[in-house]
Prior knowledge:
With 420 residues, this protein is mainly beta. It has helices at residues 2-21, 44-48; strands spanning 37-38, 77-91, 94-113, 118-139, 147-168, 174-194, 202-220, 233-244, 246-258, 261-274, 277-286, 290-300, 305-306, 316-326, 341-355, 358-372, 378-389, 397-409. The chain has a 14-stranded antiparallel barrel with strand order 2-3-4-5-6-7-8-11-12-14-15-16-17-18. The radius of gyration is 24 Å and the shape is elongated.
Amino acid sequence: xxxxxxxxxxxxxxxxxxxxxxxxxxxxxxxxxxxxxxxxxxxxxxxxxxxxxxxxxxxxxxxxxxxxxxxxxxxxxxxxxxxxxxxxxxxxxxxxxxxxxxxxxxxxxxxxxxxxxxxxxxxxxxxxxxxxxxxxxxxxxxxxxxxxxxxxxxxxxxxxxxxxxxxxxxxxxxxxxxxxxxxxxxxxxxxxxxxxxxxxxxxxxxxxxxxxxxxxxxxxxxxxxxxxxxxxxxxxxxxxxxxxxxxxxxxxxxxxxxxxxxxxxxxxxxxxxxxxxxxxxxxxxxxxxxxxxxxxxxxxxxxxxxxxxxxxxxxxxxxxxxxxxxxxxxxxxxxxxxxxxxxxxxxxxxxxxxxxxxxxxxxxxxxxxxxxxxxxxxxxxxxxxxxxxxxxxxxxxxxxxxxxxxxxxxxxxxxxxxxx
Length: 420
């Protein structure tokens, strides 16, 4: 018993240590638009199943996107993890690879009343991320200066702290709501680099601090399995949720660095409008152990505004997901391999980006599994393989992978044994 908890403790410490030391992010030129790439996954389990879960009342998973699914929690659960990723970019017949590692945040959830379907959760998860570094060469007509470069770079992103709860109404209809606090720092830089005359070098950096409030509301239907009149289908549900952010408050600090000196000034306060997001899904449990789910996500990024101005490089975001999970029945008499869970999924996405009139689409496949650490704890692995963009119109095509590793810890991790 002591060895079991020592193993869980060791894995948790290693994950947290690595997350605190690895903060680089995958380089993507498209993340310079809006507030960056959308972070739709925050756990290895969710990533391995194609980033679905809106309509799954899972007893051992905390779903941030639909708080109504918290009615399924049977015990206190804590999850955290890190993600490794790589991005192979193709542009103008040349390729370059970028790697990364980062923290996935954490979630903690617990049931309050099983009879009334009351569950609660809180945590910190990423919402968007910016990471790009672009170097553009220029051929000077001046024989003294020769070639010089313009460097564009960006980093940072937005995260949220959430507190959520669920409640079961009559007829087994479940509702959920979350209070969200958004915060983050966005950093955009540009620099002129003269290789033959460094005295002419200059740089410009705009650092933006953001914060704001938002909410998530969700609904989960009763079990409609009876409409199929089949002994094989034991659960069928439909779920939906809405994320509302509104306008984030932002403060900007501009720094200029040139041969004449360093100058820093405040660019003042303003608002950043993040559009709402709608998610719809359906899930089915077949033969008790096989979970199938389909989802659709919509977010009109054409309504995004920065200082009151919209962007021609943003459009409506649409995403279609299919997910599958094999979830064997648990039992102390089961062998190790009989308790391993397997997952797979795929998604088609019209991203929020539209560059020079060309829409940027993304196609992904997913896979993953969970290794039991004990009867209620697991080590989760999730893998995503994606392709995004195109080489047409001198744009960048990206082929990237993402490997999520996380721990999902149950009630025994938190409850202190009673004194004998």
